[in-house]
Amino acid sequence: MLQVKMPEAYKIDMLDVPVPAIKANEVLINMKRLGICGSDIQVYHGKHKYMRFPVVQGHEGAGVIVKTGEKAEGLSVGDKVTIQPQVFCGKCYPCQIGHYNVCEHLKVFGIHEPGMASEYFAAEASKVIKLPQDMSFDQGAMVEPAAVAVGAVRRCGDIEGNNILVLGAGTIGNLAAQTAQACGADKVMITDINSKRLDIAGDCGIEYCINTKEKDIGDAISEIFEDRKADVIIDCAGVKTTIDQAINNARRASKIVVVGNFKEPVEIEMPLLQRREIDMIGIMMYVKEDFEEAIRLMQEGKVKTEKLITDYYRIRDFKQAYEYIDHHMEDVMKVMLTFEA
Ligand SMILES: [Zn+2]
Ligand SMILES: [Zn+2]
Questions:
Q1: Ligand 2 centre and the CA of 96: distance in Å?
Q2: Residues whose CB is less than 8 angstroms from the CB of residue 61 and which lie 6 or more positions away in sequence, other chains included
Q3: Per-residue pLDDT tens for 64-73?
Q4: For residue 261, is pLDDT > 90?
Q5: What is the mean pLDDT of the chain?
Q6: Which of 1, 23, 190, 253 is most buried, judging by how many CB atoms fall within 10 Å of its CB?
Q7: Does 84 map to a domain?
Q8: In Å, how far are 55, 86, 139, 290 from 113, measured between CA atoms?
Q9: How far is the CA of 88 from the centre of ligand 2 (A)?
Q10: Are residue 98 and residue 158 in the same domain, yes or no?
């Protein structure tokens, strides 16, 4: 079978390897779709802080079960599935209190452990999540990023009636804003400096889409959220500009949720955090319930993912996909890899 391996930054090998044998508690999945994530692009550029080459990438996948081990309960051949790509120890303190997404020994498929960029992928049944049979494979591969958004909104606490500001209208920001709307927020505003991303946000039904190159973010907050301003600001960009926007525009007694993957340390205005009693909260990926909630929201049509997929490439053209992304950073949202011949 075809397996795509990255021996070093900017280099991609197409290998022919045997189809993996499965253990009793595993299933074999014939992969159908694989989404390329911002973190994958960091790996491709050799800029990801916490990984080592060589690596088989891929953590946003969907496929069909073609074989089940005798102890893989609840799963059958023919099931459409996605995979929760976290490996955790189950023993450390965070694991014991249910926060296995921040396990002290956390490993992620496609970053520290082999990912799904293979025609067939063997996965432990406990990490395999069934998709509704009428869900498309495109949607199936979008469940993982949608689960990131669900996890982020969960970390906001009860947002019923809240004003939510999402910074960054890339895939995760878009999905976080849609999720916040679906979870009973009052007003949801999303900002970016990329008009194409904001257009997609509008097409997905996000109420207020603001280009901060054209409009001052503080003015937009006052006009749209009025005196109450933002109850929660979710930073999905992970750069100094947006975290500064968050701190400088956070209302007294409000929250900032940090979702974006910062590439480097940044200096922030700590006195404002202290004096305004701002809660700053980090979120790392998700737990299984976030996948289930993401699937439910997508099935109910409350979170739409079709418009987020801007480009398709065959898995054999992985390298071309990255080259395209490198030259069209401004235009791409989710680039989807397909496994058809
Ligand atoms: Zn991802
Ligand atoms: Zn652990």
A1: 7
A2: 29, 31, 33, 34, 35, 82, 83, 115, 116, 121, 140, 141, 144
A3: 999 999 999 9
A4: no
A5: 97
A6: 190
A7: yes
A8: 7, 9, 24, 22
A9: 5
A10: no
Judged by its nearest atom, the ligand closest to the C-alpha of residue 104 is 2
pLDDT for position 341: 63
How high is the pLDDT of residue 41?
94
What's the 292 CA to ligand 2 centre distance in angstroms? Answer: 22
Same domain for 187 and 76? no
Residue showing tokens 């120890």: 89
**Whole-structure pTM value:** 0.97
In a domain, 139, yes or no: no
The closest ligand to the CA of 106 turns out to be 2
CA of 94 to the centre of ligand 2 (A): 6
Gap from CA of 248 to ligand 1 centroid (Å): 28
Q: Which domain holds residue 71?
A: 2-130+305-338
What does the block give as tokens for 118?
Answer: 């293979």
Q: Kindly report, residue by residue over 21-73, the tens digit of the pLDDT.
A: 999 999 999 999 999 999 999 999 998 888 889 999 999 999 999 999 999 99
DSSP readout, 197-209? HHHHHHHTT-SEE
**Number of structural domains, the chain?**
2
Give yes or no: residues 96 and 197 share one domain. Answer: no
* Å from CA of 74 to ligand 2 middle: 25
